[in-house]
Amino acid sequence: MPIADLHLHTTASDGRLTPTQLIELVAEKRLKGVAVTDHDSTEGLAEAYEAARAFPDLRVIPGIELSTDVPGSEIHVLAYYIQYTDGRVQERLARFREGRVDRARKMVEKLRDLGVEIEWDRVQAIAGDGAVGRPHVALAMVEKGYIKEPREAFDTYIGRNGPAYAERVKLTPVEAVGLIRDWGGAAVVAHPSEIPDLDDTLDELKNAGLAGMEVYYAQYSVERIKELAKIAADHGLLACGGSDYHASGNTGEPLPGTMGPPLETLDSLREMATRPVSIPG
User: Fold this and answer.
1) How far apart are CA 249 and CA 138, in angstroms?
2) Strands across the sheet with 33-36, in order?
3) Are 41 and 16 part of one and the same domain?
4) What CA–CA distance (Å, rounded) separates 10 from 245?
5) pLDDT tens digit string along 195-232?
6) Which range marks the domain in which residue 240 is found?
7) Res. 71 pLDDT band, cuts 50 70 90
8) Can you tell me the distance from the alpha carbon of 34 to that of 18, in angstroms, rounded to the nearest whole number?
9) C-alpha–C-alpha distance, residues 202 and 198, integer Å
10) pTM of the model
11) Are residues 56 and 79 in contact, defined by beta-carbon separation less than 8 angstroms?
């Protein structure tokens, strides 16, 4: 059965492949349906759609990933089919990205206090034109030899409870779901195994208009996927998922297409969007 990959990142945020390179990779993997879901940015979509013109059998839908705040943790919410060309949407996303820059600066300062000397200019250079994120800080640490793989930075320094972690202004999960609906899209909870009090959270978000949750997440075991499929069904949520691919350089990172929902999920998400955007081509 053909599968989709609805969780992919590019250099528009913290992925390491350009949108063109990502589209070429998913086409090589013979995927028929994908979503580009960069953090707080849709800047990679135009290039992705242009690259996809070379692959008529490949369907690309617009997405985005938003970070939200809960006590002691965070919840990521994916959005699909939002009206991303709307100036008001882009203005809000630009403010989110500004918050990312401020947070990354603070992390670099905290790392220096801990004896980890990386340069802010280098973090910016790694990010390029993309939305600055913690993975760019991690890559700068790899370059300087402080760690071997980016994931070590999260485990030791810049994870949620790490000594160099810094906060930024975020939405609550309910606010994110409402915003996505206002933008015309369908909201889906990402990597739900990280969510505390999952059932209660899903109840609250479903009441706010949540459409689905990730079930077929490439970093989960087959047993966990089965458990999540039941939870999604119990809450009346569409089962989504994908690889969460960044080309991060971490050992064992799942490639696009490793795991994902049925291809028909793209149509289901469009039907659940409040005012789905027209897709180029």
Assistant:
1) 11
2) 4-8, 33-36, 59-70, 73-80, 186-189, 212-217, 238-242
3) yes
4) 9
5) 989 999 999 999 999 999 999 999 999 999 999 999 99
6) 4-91+173-272
7) confident
8) 15
9) 6
10) 0.91
11) no
